[in-house]
Design a protein that fits this description.
By secondary structure, the protein is α/β, with parallel strands linked by helices. The protein has one domain: Spore Coat Polysaccharide Biosynthesis Protein SpsA, Chain A (Alpha-Beta Complex). Strands 1, 4, 5, 6, 7, 10, 11 and 12 form an 8-stranded mixed sheet that branches. The protein has a two-stranded antiparallel ribbon with strand order 2-3. A two-stranded antiparallel ribbon has the order 8-9. The longest helix has 13 residues. It binds cytidine-5'-triphosphate and magnesium ion (MG). Cytidine-5'-triphosphate binds next to α3.
Length: about 240
């Protein structure tokens, strides 16, 4: 983490970490589920701290665990209670940004193995002039659009589809306008760029990273454990 990056604009990351993790199960909020002996959120925040361009980190934690999470992450990370839905958690965290932040990234705590280089690549693309930037990967599976009964309506050509990851990066005023425009009206939007698209703001894509996958179900956690076990000691944080 640096105070001011080379472009002279400060970059913050908002980390929604207040979800319950119902699909993963296990009786603990997902962000606190251990991965390699440490909570997933700690891995995610460590990667953000290791990014060169990040100067502030704000975490939206499960409301009953704000103090626990705050102690876990230390004094450099601001921790606030999250909301009922992901959009509520992000909206609340946006209010805690320092005044001089110009670029905001939003990054899921549930993507604990995201490389710091991807965080910097997203930040750099926004600093370079794009109002909104998302990391994407080509799809492995074919995707079908279906009706309420599960009958196939159509098959969009896979070549034109992308799977979307986080961190997603925005000029601060763009993201704030997107969230302000949605007050009291929670749409079926599943990522932050989706809100920005509704304003008609162009969203640029950059290549994502395989390690930035989201831990959603039990098999994802097994995969994350396996990847972490193969990392060099220093990089995995187990030496510190
Ligand atoms: N999130 C949040 N506040 C919520 C819901 C989700 O901050 N009210 C966060 C999660 O903690 C996670 C990210 O948004 O880091 C992506 O959400 P998801 O993967 O769906 O996590 P959960 O909502 O915890 O999982 P599930 O949907 O299986 O309950
Ligand atoms: Mg969820």
């Amino acid at each position: 983490m640096t105070a001011v990056n080379e472009a002279g604009a400060r970059v913050a990351v908002v980390v929604p970490a207040a979800g319950r993790g119902e699909r993963l199960g296990g009786g603990v909020p997902k962000a606190l589920r251990p991965l390699g002996g440490r909570p997933m959120l700690v891995h995610a925040v460590q990667a953000l701290s290791a990014a060169e361009l990040v100067s502030q980190i704000v975490v939206a934690a499960p409301p009953t665990l704000v103090e626990v999470v705050s102690r876990l992450l230390g004094p450099d990370v601001r921790v606030l209670p999250g909301g009922a839905e992901r959009v509520d958690s992000v909206r609340g965290a946006l209010r805690a940004l320092d005044d001089d932040i110009r670029v905001v990234l939003v990054h899921d705590a549930a993507r604990p193995l995201t490389p710091p280089s991807l965080v910097d690549a997203v930040a750099r693309a926004v600093l370079g002039g794009h109002p909104a930037v998302i990391p994407v990967l080509p799809l492995a599976d074919t995707v079908k659009e279906v009706d309420a009964d599960g009958r196939v309506l159509r098959t969009p050509p896979r070549g034109g589809l992308r799977a979307v990851q986080t961190p997603q990066g925005f000029r601060r005023e763009v993201l704030e306008a997107a969230y302000a425009s949605q007050d009291g009206d929670l749409p079926a939007v599943t990522d932050d760029a989706g809100l920005v698209e509704r304003l008609g703001v162009p969203v640029a894509t950059i290549p994502g990273a395989d390690e930035a996958f989201k831990v959603t179900r039990a098999a994802d956690l097994l995969f994350a454990e396996a990847l972490l076990a193969r990392r060099p000691l220093a990089e995995s944080g187990r030496s510190s």
